[in-house]
Write the structure tokens for this entry.
Amino acid sequence: MIRLVEWTQSFVAPEEIELQQPFVETAHRLLEQRSGAGHEFLGWMDLPSSFDPIELQRIKEAGQNIAKQANLLVVIGIGGSYLGARAALHMLQHSFHDLLPREQRPLQVVFAGHQMSATYLAELLELLDHYEVAVNVISKSGTTTEPALAFRTLKQYMEQRYGIQGAAQRIYATTDAKRGALRKLANEAGYETFVIPDDVGGRFSVLTPVGLLPLAAAGIDVDALLQGAKRAQSELRESDVRKNPAYTYAALRQILRAKGKAIELFVTYEPALHYVGEWWKQLFGESEGKDGKGLYPASADFSTDLHSLGQFVQDGARTLFETVIKVKNPRRSLQIEEVADDLDGLNYLAGRPLQQVNDTALEATMLAHQTGGVPTILLELDDMSAASLGYLFYFFEKAVAVSAYLQGVNPFDQPGVEMYKSNMFALLGKPGYENQRERLATMAKVRES
Ligand SMILES: O=P(O)(O)OC[C@H]1O[C@](O)(CO)[C@@H](O)[C@@H]1O
């Protein structure tokens, strides 16, 4: 479902990949034997094959229930508790889902809690009265400020509108089995709850209820998603770097990093994959960007961004390589028509599928960027189905785990995210952060002087 089609061999020779085999073998063993750094967070590896069928059924039923109760589902979460569902909906639903006639989109999903913008939240609140609303609040820790604040506001809205009991029947909480503020609140309020397993970190949680419940509510085939991931789980077991495309990709990235490429640009030619790029950025950024190491994960939508970033990619600082996703069989096709006057001079393309032009743009760009000193890794995704997306999720999860081990870091922690949070708590005056507040005040004075 994903194939590694080619990479720029003038930058990385096949023998260089083979030389990685002993290191890949070690990384593979660390994963399979569950003995590497962060091994307590390897639950994602078996999720597709070991998902509890009763729990899956409960998720699907809750999804159906949401779709009956509501025509608007507000999904509250951030990072790994947000991006997977958003990526899947954006890729699998109609490109103009929001514009479809009402009867063709029985349930609309919107997101909140993925930032702290008052404008965003206030304008969302303004619209809610026009819909029947349900809420899925998702937080593994239950303490993340952004979703917690959004939920405080939404909970109040729901209770005022539907009453405390009525609101409780329309609020679904996805969180830790036992710990955290959200678990406590959900238990006390009597919400239906779903568990994010202890051994699955946020950015690896798309195939848990975190991703599956909103997707089930939106009518996405979650069985197919899991089936695709299951296929990846069984096909990406091979320890040979030449035979396992996830490992070839991991090795290529690390070789390119060692050659001074500091930025990986995730490129798609299908706008529907835009949020897959956003999901991918968190997966790779949080897993690898630590101990002063890592590739900076960036993303771009081509050919759109060729007309904004293209100049830099072709000709700017030579610190980039690209990972390009080509969709082999996109959802739709469209033929370019011949017109009598040919005023736009495009008749030379008449009779050809528009997709052919898109594919040619991809090829032309790869050649141009290679000439400009930008290596490319080309991945091909079969199609834009739920099964292929499930495969893609698992492919990148496996790749990042091995890549991070090759790089010598723990793929499953994110210590660097904490500093902004604790600084913010100190500046906001949260009890317990008084010392830090003083330190920040001193820093501010030094800056002013
Ligand atoms: O689900 P939670 O615990 O609210 O965390 C959301 C996200 O925030 C982070 O902890 C980073 O701030 C991510 O790792 C995580 O995916």
